[in-house]
Amino acid sequence: MMISIVYDSGYGHTAKQAEAVAQGVQRVPGAEANLIAVADGAAPWDVLAASDAIIFGSPTYNGTLSSRLKKFMEASTRPAWLPMAWRNKISAGFTNSGAQSGDKLNTLIALAMFAAQHGMIWVGVDMLPGRGENDMNRLGGWLGAMAQSDDVSPEISPIASDLQTAAHLGQRVADLARRLKSTS
Question: What is the pLDDT of residue 156?
Answer without folding.
Answer: 87
